[in-house]
Write a structure and sequence with these properties.
The chain is α/β, with parallel strands linked by helices. The protein has a domain of 192 residues: Alpha/Beta hydrolase fold, catalytic domain (Rossmann fold). Helix content is 31%, strand content 15%. It contains 10 helices and 8 strands. A hairpin with a 5-residue loop joins β6 and β7. The longest helix has 19 residues. It is globular and about 50 Å long.
Length: 276
């Protein structure tokens, strides 16, 4: 089967939905790539392990429906990347029954989310939550009661489990991130175009090296290629918001980079195209 005919599983992020792929899906269809879009909106409030188990069940159902046992690829956004990694590296890490060629992670909090930690901070958490309400978090959002947010804190049991499992050498992993290279406030107006980052010792800082929600340091994953977009700062001149976390899967440059990876044989090796 040609690389561009391998089924692709799409996994959206926290509090998101499959509509985030409305720019990518048409490109996949044009290329003749089968699309399996995993929707876990009905699992709002579920633990990472439960959502990962549901993803595994969905893939099994799709394989049965299509009578297909070959390789698949995964494209994930944000926490959806952690869900996929939990399935592949923890649940299936030893048996490796899932035949996966590559995992493409867009804006993933691979090392845990600094913002999730910030939300749970009793001093500044409420203020940050208020600033992001209606944009990134829903009304009446309570981080203490949100299982997925707690699971994405850097030192949570879930993140420790992922770190202990390690990445799978049989799966090519590509991380696609964005940063506000021009320091433009319109990149993510809620935070003045910047992103919170957690520094050693528990100190906080705001940086342009992130997508407004996830700083670059939270995304870096050993063994994975890293693309930091936009490749040219000029891309931020007319529509900087397309590179913020909320819109990243729809950014034309991101869509093209995803297509480039999907139509490449993962066995040929990966090229690090980081622009940082």
């Amino acid at each position: 089967m040609p690389d561009c005919a391998v089924p692709v599983v799409l996994v959206h992020g926290w509090k998101s939905h499959p509509g985030i792929w409305n720019r990518l899906v048409p490109r996949l269809c044009e290329a003749g790539i089968p699309v399996w879009s995993f929707d876990y909106t009905s699992l709002d409030g579920a633990a990472m392990e439960e959502v990962a188990g549901s993803l595994g069940g969905y893939i099994a159902e799709q394989r049965a429906d299509e009578d297909y046992s070959g390789r698949i690829d995964l494209v994930c956004h944000s926490i959806g990347s952690c869900v996929a990694r939990f399935l592949l590296e923890v649940t299936d890490g030893r048996t490796r029954n899932e035949n996966v060629g590559r995992l493409i992670a867009i804006g993933p909090p691979n090392n845990g989310s600094a913002l999730a930690e910030l939300f749970c901070n009793p001093v500044i958490g409420p203020e940050i939550t208020a600033r992001l309400t209606g944009t990134f978090v829903p009304q009446n959002f309570d981080p203490a009661a949100d299982v997925m947010v707690r699971a994405c804190r850097p030192e949570s049991a879930t993140m420790k489990t992922l770190r202990a499992a390690g990445t799978r050498p049989d799966i090519a992993c590509h991380v696609i991130c964005a940063e506000n290279r021009t320091g433009t406030p319109a990149f993510f107006p809620c935070l003045g175009g910047k992103t919170f980052v957690l520094l050693p010792g528990g100190r906080w800082e705001m940086t342009c090296a992130g997508d407004g929600i996830v700083p670059l340091v939270d995304s870096v994953l050993p063994g994975a290629t890293l693309d930091v977009l936009p490749a040219s700062p000029l891309a931020l001149r007319d529509n900087p918001a397309q590179y913020c976390h909320l819109q990243l899967p729809r950014a034309p440059e991101v869509v093209e980079r995803v297509m480039e990876y999907l139509c490449r044989n993962p066995a040929t090796g990966a090229v690090n195209r980081s622009s940082s």
